[in-house]
Amino acid sequence: MKTKLSVFFCIVIAVITSISFAERKDLDVPQVKTYRIDRKISEEAQGCIDCHSEEAKGMVADWAESRHAHANVTCIDCHKAGAADKDISVAHSDYSDVPVSAIVSPKDCSRCHPTEAAEYAKSKHANTIEIMWNIKDPWLTKGLSSDIERTTGCFTCHGTVVKIDKKGKFDPLTWPNVGVGRKNPDGSLGSCSSCHTRHKFSIAEARKPEACGQCHLGPDHPQIEIYAESKHGAIYAAEGDKWKWDSAPGTWTPGVDYRAPTCSTCHMSAINGVAASHDVTERLAWETQAPITVRPSEFKPWPAKTDWKKERKKMKKVCLACHSPAWTDGHFDRFDAVVKTYNNDYFIPMKKKVTALYDKKLLDKKNPLDEKIEIELYELWHHEGRRARFGAAMMAPDYAWWHGFYEMKKRCMEIDEMIDELNESGKPAKIHKLRGSGGDTIKPDFSK
Ligand code: HEC
Ligand code: HEC
Ligand code: HEC
Ligand code: HEC
Ligand code: HEC
Ligand code: HEC
Ligand code: HEC
Ligand code: HEC
Questions:
Q1: Which amino acid residue places its CA nearest to atom 26 of ligand 2?
Q2: In this predicted model, what pLDDT tens digit does every residue of 72-114 receive, in sequence order?
């Protein structure tokens, strides 16, 4: 069986090699990187492949199709653990003498991809667990959600603190997890496979909007739905399957490889003189997810080190790869006007009205989400207030208006009626006990 598999593997490598030859011919690059053909896979590494080809075939097939397999990066390069590592799989010593770790953290990838890892490390993605606690999100800090609700909800997108016992056994409440801000036992933050799923680790996959849409969706951050509604998304749906997705970074060219931008084009990829970045906070001029929209550098829970004027220029340069200055400026003037309307005509005055009820003791401050009117104010900014701003930012009129401003008008009407009723009766609002509370309320330690 072993020899059969080795033969199979040689064929896979031969096919891959001939594909990369064909690609090199296209690019007209004269030198042949023969090391890819001559270098042998070590016996140790071959051992992993042989056994795992039986244990979990799909995984090995994904790896065999990846650029890593092309470049002779094997299981061991990512999974081999150091003697002092906390995450060594003790159970695995029954199968192999090589110490193996199930977690492959950004620190492990940084050995070969230091730039991406360094950019990622300073992003809001990587630091989101700390941000959630700094914001004092009541679902966490007041324990309004239970551990299992967090594990299967919040933490799957945001990431969690991975806990592992001395025998290398994972706490099932924290594993599996590939959230963007996962805290790894080696202290590094995040998980690169949030967007580049294993074991293909494909650049093409990450450039498609679906890679982001797994988290950026739903009532409170519907970026994928917004994208689908936009002209850009419509063009992607109509002809995206014919675009070139795997061009080398920095050479993915608008008009040549693709005709309309994806999330990656606007937020991450190199384009029109704007350098690629794994820090998605770059290119932003507003915090449009916050209750009151502020500049990223003024966002108290996590002040960005960016200058919004420079970042706005960068984002405009993205558009200028395909649009005129008048078209581009017009878009951003409208978006900025929407941000101001939302702040000044909706959220700030409504918040003031509700705050007055606390002063009159008609509302109770202790729990910010256990009275009906508190939930209404929360959804005003967290749901339709975000949708109006995001819809305007990313060219989706239905989100700007019907899912956005229209819903805000209706919600404000409902809040006003509730305020009147409370003022007329003079009796404090009914307090509801939220079901399913009781999650941990202690902020994880981010000092190391
Ligand atoms: C003789 C068979 C065999 C060999 C050789 C082998 N593995 Fe495994 N490996 C397994 C089996 C079986 C499991 C599932 C173990 C379990 O969780 O009970 C596994 C699990 C794993 C896991 C997941 C561990 C976890 O805790 O979730 C990783 C990662 C892994 N192997 C990597 C490797 C690497 C890297 C090598 C080469 C150094 C290797 N394996 C060699 C059989 C093997
Ligand atoms: C480029 C790095 C890289 C290479 C090469 C690699 N892996 Fe992985 N592997 C990962 C990452 C990342 C994960 C997800 C774990 C995490 O989130 O930290 C993973 C997860 C796993 C798991 C457990 C997850 C599951 O779905 O059960 C196994 C088993 C595994 N790898 C085996 C292998 C084997 C066998 C090979 C070689 C054929 C291999 N890996 C090559 C990075 C790599
Ligand atoms: C031992 C070095 C090494 C490690 C460790 C490593 N990589 Fe790579 N990676 C490479 C090389 C070399 C290439 C380029 C292959 C090529 O040019 O074809 C590459 C290419 C890539 C690409 C581009 C793939 C494409 O479709 O063009 C991605 C994405 C990537 N790696 C992600 C990761 C992630 C995520 C990890 C950690 C889980 C990781 N790598 C770990 C060496 C490594
Ligand atoms: C489907 C994935 C997903 C789930 C589930 C999820 N979030 Fe989020 N969350 C996001 C995304 C995406 C954003 C970014 C919103 C934006 O900037 O548009 C976000 C934003 C946030 C923010 C604002 C961060 C900031 O910079 O202002 C907080 C706080 C937060 N989430 C907490 C939670 C909590 C607590 C839970 C569970 C009770 C949760 N989230 C569940 C994906 C998710
Ligand atoms: C938020 C999604 C996301 C996460 C998380 C992510 N990437 Fe990427 N990555 C992308 C996108 C999108 C591209 C393509 C950018 C472009 O077009 O230049 C990319 C491209 C790459 C490339 C190709 C660049 C090259 O020079 O070959 C590498 C390598 C890479 N990522 C490694 C990583 C590593 C390592 C991590 C973790 C530290 C990581 N990525 C985390 C989305 C992500
Ligand atoms: C696994 C879930 C996940 C995936 C996949 C993901 N994101 Fe995020 N993203 C988040 C969360 C969670 C936040 C909120 C972080 C915070 O503010 O605390 C976020 C925030 C953002 C922000 C706002 C940053 C800021 O400074 O306000 C942008 C922009 C963004 N993501 C773009 C992307 C793009 C582009 C992709 C795909 C290439 C992507 N994301 C993939 C979960 C994800
Ligand atoms: C045509 C370019 C473009 C495309 C395509 C695009 N975005 Fe955006 N995105 C923007 C602009 C412009 C803003 C507002 C920037 C600012 O703050 O001035 C924005 C804002 C955001 C924000 C809000 C950041 C915050 O917290 O305030 C998130 C999150 C986001 N985009 C994610 C995505 C995701 C995910 C996709 C794909 C599904 C996507 N974007 C597609 C241009 C784009
Ligand atoms: C890769 C090229 C490309 C990039 C980059 C790009 N766009 Fe577009 N955009 C298009 C194409 C193509 C259309 C469709 C033109 C048409 O409607 O005839 C379009 C349409 C639009 C529309 C019309 C929407 C509608 O509903 O009619 C607006 C507004 C727009 N883009 C704004 C922007 C902004 C703002 C940016 C930068 C944040 C941007 N675009 C980046 C290619 C691009």
A1: 59
A2: 999 999 999 988 888 899 889 999 999 999 999 999 999 999 9
Atom of ligand 5 at shortest range from CA of 249: 18
For 408-444, the pLDDT digits (tens) are 999 999 999 999 999 999 999 999 988 988 899 999 8
Contacts of residue 272, Cβ cutoff 8 Å, sequence gap at least 6: 254, 317, 318, 320, 321
- Distance CA(147)–CA(288), nearest Å, equals 28
Instruction: Give 199 Cα–ligand 2 centroid separation in angstroms.
Output: 6
Instruction: For the chain, count helices (H), then strands (E).
Output: 24, 0
Cα(24) to centroid(ligand 5), Å: 22
User: Which atom of ligand 7 approaches the CA of 287 most closely?
Assistant: 27
The rounded Å distance from CA 68 to ligand 2 centre is 12
Those residues whose C-beta lies under 8 Å from the C-beta of residue 141, and which sit 6 or more positions away, are: 133, 441, 443
Q: How far is residue 140's CA from residue 132's CA, in Å, rounded to a whole number? A: 8
CB 363 near ligand 3, within 6 Å: no
pLDDT band at 3 (very low <50, low <70, confident <90, very high): very low
Is pLDDT larger for residue 5 or for residue 105? 105
Q: Which residues contact 126 (CB under 8 A, 6 or more apart)?
A: 106, 120, 180, 181, 189, 190
Let me know the angle formed at the C-alpha of 26 by 24 and 30, rounded to the nearest 5 degrees.
45
The answer to whether 252 and 274 are in contact (CB under 8 A) is no
285: CA distance to ligand 7 center in Å? 10
201: left (phi over 0), alpha (psi -120 to 50) or beta: left
Beta bridge partners of 80: 100
Long-range contacts (CB closer than 8 Å, 24 or more residues apart) made by 293-300 = 293/339, 293/342, 293/343, 293/389
* 164: helix, strand or coil: strand
The DSSP secondary structure of 278-338, one letter per residue, reads S-TTTT----TTSSS---GGG-TTS--SS-HHHHHHHHHHHHHTTS-HHHHHHHHHHHHHH
Which residue's C-alpha comes closest to atom 10 of ligand 6? 125
